[in-house]
Amino acid sequence: MRDAEAFRLRWLGRKQGRLKLISEAWLKSGPTDARKPLGIRFNQLKQQIEEVLTSVSLRIQKVLEGEERVDITLPGGVRAPGIPHPLLKTMNEIVAVFHHLGYSTALGPQVESDFYNFEALNFPPNHPARDTQDTLVLADQQAKPSRDRLLMRTHTSPVQIRSMIACAPPIRIVVPGKVHRNDAADATHSPVFHQVEGLCVDTNITFSDLKGTLDHAMKALFGSSVKTRFFPSFFPFTEPSADVQISCIFCSGAGCRKCKQSGWIELLGCGMVDPTVFASVTEARRKLNPADDAYNPAKITGFAFGMGVERIAMVQHGISDIGHFYSGDMRFLEQFA
Amino acid sequence: MNILTKWLRSFVPDIPVDDRQLAEDLTLRGIAVEGIHDLGPGNGHLFEMDITTNRVDAMNHYGVAREAATIYNLPLVPLDTALPAASPASQPFSVQIAPEAQNLCGRFTAQVLRNITIAPSTGQVAEFFALLGLKPISNAVDATNFVLQGMGHPNHAYDLDKLDGGIIVRLARKGERVKLLDGSERTLEPDDLVVADHSRAQGLAGVMGGWDSMITAETKNILVEAAWFDPASVRRSARRHGLHTDASHRFERGADLNACATANALVAKLILQSGGAPEGKLIDVVIPSVAARTANRPPIALSMAQVQRHLGATLDDQPNHSALTANLVRQYLTALGCTLSESPTNNLQPATFSVQLPSWRLDLEREIDLVEEVARVYGYNRFANTLPTALPVTAHPLAAAESAVRTRLLALGYSEAISSSFASEADGATYLGVNQQAAHGLVALENPLSDEARLLRPSLAPGMLTMLAHNLNRDVREVRLFEQGYLFNGSAEQVVELPSLALGLTGDMPPMPLHSAKDAAVFELKGVIESLLSLFAVSPEALSTSAASALTFVSDAPAWLEPGRSSTALLNGAPIACFGELAASQRETRKLRQPVFLAVLDLDAVYRLPLRRATARELSRFQAVERDFSFTFADAVPWRTIADAVHALDLPELTRLVPVEIFRDTKAGSASAGKYALLLRCVFQSNQRTLREDELSEWSARLIATLTALGGAIRT
Ligand SMILES: [Zn+2]
């Protein structure tokens, strides 16, 4: 509006307007017989410009007075897209990190036999190591041999066994999946939860390769300034075994409530594949090919790792109750839109 | 388990760091300190430990002290087991291990103490019990617990005068009864191992002692027991009788056969501090075959080459020279209790050791176990970060389809959800799947989490309903959710896991030109199913065919959906989805305050289809012509009949046939009762030429004739 008025004054102003100056400078100095038609044309042009200016000004005025005006402070209107589940989003992110490191996705069933879930992973029957994984078992299994009994897998590790029985080394797999335990639900435990497992088997795989891989993955997931720390731990199917902590992403290691003032957050378990696991795999492979020697522990080594997706998503988003993940509560999901 | 730093430092006096650093150093070596509590000046700290199940040797003060001694390369103070002079025994106390029990009880030591005095504990026992928060009972009982806390070997003190004759370790007789220290009466099975006297069982071996022979204020003479029991046998009995004790916890994980005599002496020594004397020397029965497979295992070889092969580079490595030297390996393993002798090799080859394993480390069995010990003591964080070579990534066969379905559903406004994997028996019987198969394939759990979770879910519908109800009960009235998950079908022999999809929809919807607000949700679900199937090549011969021709909808649906307001979708004639409004009875059962709409889709069948590859068609350069027709039809004539009749005309230039709007408003006079008015739009177009008015008129006339033949009346 102000621009239109400035334009009018600049070109059409009675005293200093450009057209006035032009007409004075040219028309009055031109040949007499040409002055009249030129003068008419000149006035027509001037009139046209004035009409356009007036209509623009009117339209602008109308809009400003509200007839066609939108209240742009009202909320935007669009049919909202659906919201990806924060847990599955985190799981997909973790899997993508390992895809970039050369790991292919492998999946396995949620109902497993005791052999794949425990025995082949060096949890012997009636061993105290089984106490750490309270298991949901299927009905009517008692008549079967122990290794054939069906249960809900307590971890994604049986997919390690399935993959090695199916394929000779080298192996690089990442295994996302749902697992179940006979645990009471509370703010940080759920009988249903998700894990991402990884397995790397090849010639000359070392503990330092395991360290480097997980350090790289944690930096990819949580930012390049994150540090990792490895602790000796125990899992029947790895040796050496380790728990991995990352420097607290909330306080950068200074200590806060989220890391219980330690500066570190525990995120995953890992280790070098125990030779007993390779032996179980070889035993199963030899049922198909008696000469199979692909998993001879003198020739190959490997590492495996596993992480709870819920825990990582809870850390990433500051979620305090694991139950939100399985409620379908729109108020919870909408925060992740 | 709790550990006192004051007690630890009595075993390793010169630990060069404060308690907090000690906790950190232990934790970094896998002896995890989870909590640190200041006990006040001069009392040090209490460490709350989380010892992994394989390290039973470190579930006591002396074991943790050995770890500290190893970390700081310091000597560990030996345990003083010297007893006062013994009075001679007239005849030695009788201890027998029954032949059938000799695999299960590898060693039994017994020491008779006479004329002892039962009194409150004093000195170090009283002090450490107070710091640990343990309740003192009497010197004799406290001594057994003190030794357990101190050096870890379970032991027991009997009132000697309550024992009939001697001790026999034997298997129980079926139905035999024993009253245990906790006052409970137990009925035994033939594979329960008991410590008995000559008339009855006096305790469940390795689990809990017996009531009848327990120490009381009147006890004058004591028999101290320290034995070794088989892990599996103890575990079996402990589980059967629902008892988890300090003793069973340790025996189950493998106790130290060689520690029996030491533990026995330490207990006896403490009791005798208040008076009394040992009678005779220690009675010690050892089963050699058990000793051979536990304490006296043959040495194993450890090669430095294997250390390098498994562990890789350290941060302090020099070119061609690992910082993790043979000397360090020898130092670490020796401190942990191994005896190393270097096997002769020529100088070019890495050193190889023959390693005699400590009797308290039954978890060490193989070379790799020693490699782990070396890595653990060296410190995991002193190893370098290296990366293995990458391999080419192969896509999972279902990944693209799953992702396409997920992306489409998100774009359509449905949010992703995850529900329980379980279902109740009632829901299992009700929520039959797309194919309405009978409930014979239900899979039940032996130990369900609750009565509502007895089954593995045979359908995703109940879980979706639970989530819809969760929202409605919290006044969230607009909900669009989907769950892509697995359902379970099968038997105790074999379970099949099938990918499935559930959609849940509830909330106010605006009326649409073709349907009322009340029906809009049903048609939205239909639209979602059509949209999802359009992602796939639904007929094998034509990868680019759209779903429309292969996908049909019938009014039959499972009983959990409301009849007349639900449908089954058929793909090439086979059911692939069902959807609609939840049946009123189900809505009532679940107390849902507004109508909810569900769909379940058989993703297993969908995922068998290849994803559709789009093939572009030539876009016409010629103008399209729209012709609208307004007809009145009887309600009995469905859209499908009209569309089929028009398609049967086979007009190649009729490129689109669209029902634009339906009117049923009888009051406004747009249609009379039992009839509806339909605004129909036809789009004609040719790829070759501009259409002529006369041919358009002819096609329109044929259309009108066809629709009139269906009972339609053209409106003007
Ligand atoms: Zn923090």
Entry summary:
The complex is a heterodimer of chains A (337) and B (716). Helix content of chain A is 37%, strand content 19%.
Write the layout of secondary structure elements.
The complex is a heterodimer of chains A (337) and B (716).
Chain A: H1 2-12, H2 18-27, H3 32-65, H4 86-100, E1 104-105, E2 111-113, H5 114-117, E3 150-152, H6 158-166, E4 171-180, E5 192-202, H7 207-222, E6 228-235, E7 238-247, E8 264-273, H8 275-286, E9 301-308, H9 309-317, H10 330-333
Parallel strand pairs in A: 1-4
Antiparallel strand pairs in A: 2-3, 4-5, 5-9, 6-7, 7-8, 8-9
Helix pairs in contact in A: 1-3, 4-9, 6-8
Chain B: E1 2-4, H1 5-11, H2 19-28, E2 32-38, E3 45-50, H3 61-72, E4 95-97, E5 105-114, H4 123-132, H5 139-151, E6 156-159, E7 167-171, E8 177-179, E9 185-187, E10 193-196, E11 201-204, E12 208-209, E13 222-229, H6 231-240, H7 246-252, H8 259-272, E14 277-286, H9 288-293, E15 300-303, H10 304-311, H11 326-335, E16 339-343, E17 352-356, H12 367-378, H13 399-411, E18 415-416, E19 422-423, H14 425-430, E20 443-444, E21 455-456, H15 461-472, E22 479-490, E23 495-506, H16 520-533, E24 551-554, E25 561-571, E26 574-582, H17 584-589, E27 597-601, H18 603-607, E28 625-634, H19 639-648, E29 654-663, E30 675-684, H20 693-709, E31 713-714
Helix pairs in contact in B: 1-3, 3-11, 5-8, 6-7, 10-12, 11-12
Bound molecules: zinc ion.
Structure report:
- The complex is a heterodimer of chains A (337) and B (716).
- Chain A has 337 residues and is an alpha+beta fold.
- Chain A has helices spanning 2-12, 18-27, 32-65, 86-100, 114-117, 158-166, 207-222, 275-286, 309-317, 330-333, and strands spanning 104-105, 111-113, 150-152, 171-180, 192-202, 228-235, 238-247, 264-273, 301-308.
- Helices cover 37% and strands 19% of the residues of chain A.
- The longest helix of chain A is centred in the first third of the chain and has 34 residues, at 32-65.
- The model of chain A has no long low-confidence stretch (mean pLDDT 90).
- With 716 residues, chain B is of the alpha+beta class.
- Chain B has a 7-stranded mixed β-sheet with strand order 18-22-23-27-26-25-24, sandwiched between helices. Chain B has a 5-stranded mixed β-sheet with strand order 4-7-10-11-12. In chain B, strands 6-13-5-14 form a 4-stranded antiparallel β-sheet.
- Chains A and B meet through helix 4, strand 1, strand 4, strand 5 and helix 7 of A and helix 6, helix 10, helix 12, helix 13 and strand 18 of B.
- The complex binds zinc ion (ZN).
- The site of zinc ion has 8 residues of chain A, from loops.
